[in-house]
Design a protein that fits this description.
- By secondary structure, the protein is an alpha/beta fold.
- It has 11 helices and 4 strands, in the order αββααβαβααααααα.
- The protein has 2 domains: 166 residues, no CATH class; 97 residues, no CATH class.
- The protein is globular.
Length: 309
């Protein structure tokens, strides 16, 4: 979440990262596989915006850490550049999981797959915040690395994604959520603060307060009857709950939560798991997130970024 960096990411991966029914960190072990080759290599062109990342199609090639990330060398050993946004992996992370996480990020940023980031302002905001997707193998790998005592959280906008929760066989792909949080916190919400600021007041928090049956700075003892979003982890503050609400709403609109088994798994936290149900019970958030002025993704990522260019 905004303002909650690496020092709090272990808690956030449970409270504001992995959604209900996702199994949490360490629930599924994914065996390492061989490197997934990059699908497309296109010569880079640089954005005219001062400080913006490279907006041309990324090749998602795995390489060493760039010089600007030399402070990550004690913890991470590989890097992927996605439109100028950093993805870093700890040594135990498989190439399969690493490239998958980067592919999901590329698809959120270039959702129409034309080979260019959809919104230069989002990329600019993320690069300004030094946004980085951090991929340890699991929670133990993170804690034993020493990174939580390093102070790196002061210099980067970081979001965790564990290898063991990335596209597990037979389980929900946490990359769809964790990468979504990264782009929301440091991209979409920054570009559209009046509409999407998770700390409020914003259109997003107004809609969330209706979905929860009132404005609750902390998790209430019980939610009012009729509430359809009832987040119950008390480590999650108001802005964290808004970030989760945005994730649930947006990915539901994309059709990413509608599998019958998935609907049952998440019902304790999120009831309207299909686009049709969400439109019926929450027309406010549905209309907002489908507003073309926001330019949000309309196709759910699958990690297989294949730009047309």
């Amino acid at each position: 979440m905004r303002g909650s960096r690496l020092a709090a990411l272990v808690l956030l991966s449970a409270a504001c990262g992995s959604g209900a029914g996702d199994g949490g960190t360490g629930s599924t072990t994914v065996p390492a596989t061989t490197t997934v080759p990059a699908t497309t290599t296109v010569p880079a062109t640089t954005s005219e915006a001062d400080g913006a990342g490279d907006l041309s199609v990324p090749d998602l090639a795995v390489g060493p850490l760039p010089a600007e990330l030399d402070d990550w060398e004690p913890y991470a050993d590989r890097h992927i550049d996605v439109f100028g946004i950093h993805v870093v992996a700890f040594p135990r992370v498989s190439e399969r999981a690493f490239t998958h996480g980067a592919g999901v990020l590329a698809q959120y940023l270039d959702n129409d797959a034309d080979g260019y980031a959809d919104d230069e302002r989002v990329v600019q905001a993320m690069t300004d915040e030094r946004a980085v997707l951090v991929m340890p193998y699991d929670e133990e790998d993170l804690e034993s690395s020493g990174i939580l005592e390093s102070g790196l959280e002061e210099a980067y906008g970081a979001q965790l994604l564990f290898d063991v929760e990335t596209a597990p066989t037979g389980g929900f792909d946490a990359a769809l959520e964790e990468v979504h949080h990264l782009v929301f916190d440091y991209g979409w919400a920054s570009v559209h603060p009046e509409r999407l600021a998770p700390e409020g007041p914003s259109d997003l928090t107004t809609a969330m307060d209706l979905a929860r049956g009132g404005r609750f700075e902390k998790v209430p003892g019980t939610y009012p009857a009729g509430a359809w979003y009832h987040y119950d982890d008390r480590t999650c503050g108001y802005d964290c709950m808004a970030t989760e609400y945005f994730y649930w709403s947006h990915t539901t609109i994309l059709g990413g939560q509608g599998d019958p088994d998935r609907c049952a798994d998440i019902a304790e936290e999120w009831e309207p798991c299909t686009p049709e149900r969400l439109a019926a019970v929450d027309p406010m958030v549905t209309a907002m997130l489908q507003d073309p002025d926001l330019g949000l993704p309309t196709v759910p990522p699958d990690g297989g970024y294949r730009p047309r260019s």
